[in-house]
Structures are given as structure tokens and as C-alpha cells.
Amino acid sequence: MTRAKVVDRATRILDAGGPDALTLSRVARELGVRPPSLFDHIEGLPGLLRALRIRSFEAQTELLRAAAVGRSEDDALRAVALAYRGFTTAHPGLYRISVRTYVGDAPEVQRAAGALLSAFLEILRGYAIAEDELVHAARFARGALHGFLTLEAEGGFGLATNVDASFERTVDAICRALGTWTSPIGGWSSASTARGRPSRPRRARMRSAELGR
Amino acid sequence: MTRAKVVDRATRILDAGGPDALTLSRVARELGVRPPSLFDHIEGLPGLLRALRIRSFEAQTELLRAAAVGRSEDDALRAVALAYRGFTTAHPGLYRISVRTYVGDAPEVQRAAGALLSAFLEILRGYAIAEDELVHAARFARGALHGFLTLEAEGGFGLATNVDASFERTVDAICRALGTWTSPIGGWSSASTARGRPSRPRRARMRSAELGR
DNA sequence: GGATATTTCCTAACTATATTAGGTTGGGTT
DNA sequence: AACCCAACCTAATATAGTTAGGAAATATCC
């Protein structure tokens, strides 16, 4: 019984049964030991979750780097997107657990998350995007990819008609947006924007209705 | 003590303390009753979560409709995006809980989720996008919005430098992509694409490494 | 090789949570 | 006045996580 085996088994349970299925009792049962025995290898449930998050971030980072090597711009982004989708499909639970609790988490987790972030930034460096716009572009691209995959994993697309095609179109759209990235002041990037830049959104006020009290 | 009060209090706890803070014990304590008393108003914890998800979807749907009324295309999308961000900021817990568990959930929850989906589709109808492309465009737009807001809410952007600007850029990027939406066959929409349509991504194979065993 | 230290598992016990069963009470109805 | 039922209660059970402390196996050191 080693720490790695505990985390391995937890990963399997997580991927197969979702977050609610993962309990120390179950991990212990499947490993043939009693729950308290796990505490000699992980620091309780929080420690196990921490280990899983780190594993998830590291896997994603490596994946991303491997997919991008030797490619650039749209080519790199497409490869990364495909690899990412492969990951969320193969390890839905592990992916999910990496979302949530970046902030306030242990330094090691923060570090793993940071590595993923910078790997992503690296890929976007191929595009003709001003340095101070890069972070915005990265947030957009990562968010778009992440949002699609999350919704897909959660079944948020309702009837699963043609999700593959939707994904291709989504990646295309991201590439298109990155290829025509603009600064808010004037045109920066090589290509001119297709439809200019429509009026700045005026701050709309929202009512939070009678939710929560 | 009414059902509505239970759900209200649960919403507050959820928004203030996150998913882990929400327990029946706590709801009961804050309402001045004992836990079993709650069972006369909700069907246990699963029932409470169900009610919360429904409330979340309904709130989002109404919000979206209200923001879009009287506007179209980019104008509508910008307003919707702002309203959405306002919602996730005001009710992070309630928003979170709507993500996850679409599939396999109770019919009422499915219905509430479906209403949100179709409201979103309605907004995109203003764009010059072919009918059979609409669903793809909606998945992209919703995913991008959702992904950004999720990452922001989870602190996934690391140092919170200029997230407001990132959001504006992201909404711009979504508008741009929708304005230049293409069909995979040929040009459909009004504007021609800025950078043509690069080679179809070839299915990359991924290794799932030694994760989960 | 034998004494010792460390690792790894165990049982026992405690806490919190969700949940069921069944009792009490008071307001409103016939 | 008798009744019903809505809304609360106490008591009890099951499961999860966790701590304390002990026993056995394994590694380490003289």
C-alpha cells in the first residue's frame, strides 16, 4: 500500500462515479484496508483531494505541452484542443476536480495550476498579439475551451446531437478570434477586424431579484 | 416555516460559504428548527439541491431574457454577458450548483435547464447564421461565456489583474466570432472570414498516461 | 545478529451528517 | 365537539471522517 496506489484508486473512483462517489471509506474498502489506515499515506480527505488536483493539473500541463510541440498558432491550438477533449473524456472526474478551489488552496496546488496557465500562454505567443493583450487572449481561449468541455461533460448541451461538429466549430471560432485580436485603442494585430469594433458596452445594471432572502 | 424560506436560506448559505457549507443541519440551525423538521418541506438533501438548481436555471433564464429584450446581435449579447457576470458575482454558489448534473437529473430540472438553453438560442437568431449552424454557435457562445465566468469564480485566472478588461475582450471576441460564423462547406454568413478556414484538424491520438491505475 | 526505530496496519471511540419512525400540538374544518 | 392535518418534536440508525493508541512487520544501525 503506497500513497500512489491510494491516489490511483481514488482517481478511478472519481472518473467512474463522479465526485460524490469518492469517499475514504470506499477507497479503503477497494484497497482492502480500513479507513484509518489511509491516514498514514494521505492527510485525510482534504489531502487526497489536494493530491488529485495536483495530479490533474500536472497531467493537463504535460498533455498541453506534448500536443503543442512542433506546431504553432492555429495548428497548435487545434492539437491542444483535441488533446484536452481527449483528457476530459478519459478522465471526467479528474478534470472536474481541477476546476474549483484554485484560490485559497495549498501552495503546491497553486503551483501546479500556475504551470498549466503559463503553458497555455506559451502557445498563444505564436499569434500576432501584443504582449499586454496576451493575458486577455489566453483567458478568452482557455475559458472558451474550458466552458465547452465542462458543459459537454455535464451534459449541459441537452440532446447530444453533433457535439463533435460543435467542437470543431468552436475551435474554429477561437482560432478566428485569436487571429483577429484587437486592442481596445486601435488596430494592433496584422489583419484588420472584419466588423470593426462595435460600441463599448455600457454598464448595464442588474437586479438580483429576490434570490437568497 | 415554508418551503420557500428553506430554499432562501439554503441559497444564502450556498452563496456565502460554497457547496461544502450547505448542510441540512446548518439550514435547520439557522432557521431555528431541528433537521428532521425540514423533511416536511423538502425531500431531503437531494430535494433541496434539486430545488436550488431549478431556482438557479430559472433566475438565469429570466435574467437573460430581460437583458436581451429590445436589443439584437452584438448589443444583445453584450447586455446578456454583463447580466450573466452580474449573476455569477452576486450568486456564485447558486451559479455553481447549476453546473453539473444536467444529465440524469429530475425532469423538472431538465426542463428548467432546457428553457435556459432555448432562451440563449433565441438571442443568436439575430445573427446571420444558418439554422443548422445555430446550435453550434450557441454552444460556442455559451461555452465561452460560461468558461470565463467559471474560471473567474474559481480564481482560475491566478492574480486577478485586469479581469474586467479580459471580460470585455472576451465578449468582443465572441461577437467577432459570431459575426464571421462559417459553415464547414462554404461561406454562408454575410462577411467573409478573415483568415479563411485552415486545414481540418487531424484526429490526434492521446495517451492517458498512467492515470487511474 | 540482535536491539531499535520506523512503517503500516489495526481496533476503539468520537463527531457530524442525513434520514426514518413515530409522537405531540395547535389551528382550522365539518 | 370531534376531527384532521400541518409542522414541529424526540429517539434511533447508518455512514463518513477523524483521532488515539496499540501490534506486527520491516528496515536500520551498532
**Biggest sheet of chain A: strands, sense, closure?**
none
CATH architecture of the largest domain in chain A: Orthogonal Bundle
* Count of helical regions of chain A: 9
CATH fold naming of the largest domain in chain A: Tetracycline Repressor, domain 2
List the helices and strands and how they pair.
Two copies of one chain form a homodimer.
Chain A: H1 3-17, H2 24-31, H3 35-38, H4 44-68, H5 73-90, H6 92-98, H7 107-124, H8 131-154, H9 163-179
Helix pairs in contact in A: 1-2, 4-5, 4-6, 4-7, 5-6, 5-8, 5-9, 8-9
Chain A binds a DNA duplex (30 and 30 nucleotides) through residues 1, 23-25, 33-37, 39-41, 44-45.
Would you kindly provide a written description of the structure presented here, covering whatever features stand out?
Helices cover 64% and strands 0% of the residues of chain A. By secondary structure, chain A is an all-alpha fold. Chain A has 2 domains: 42 residues, Homeodomain-like (Arc Repressor Mutant, subunit A), CATH 1.10.10; 128 residues, Tetracycline Repressor, domain 2 (Orthogonal Bundle). In chain A, α4 packs across α6, α5 packs across α6 and α8 packs antiparallel against α9. Chain A is elongated and about 55 Å long. The structure holds a DNA duplex (30 and 30 nucleotides).
Descriptive keywords:
213 residues; Tetracycline Repressor, domain 2; homodimer; mainly alpha; Arc Repressor Mutant, subunit A; DNA-binding
Q: Would you kindly provide a brief summary of this structure?
A:
The structure is a homodimer of 213-residue chains. The first copy, chain A, has 213 residues and is mainly alpha-helical.
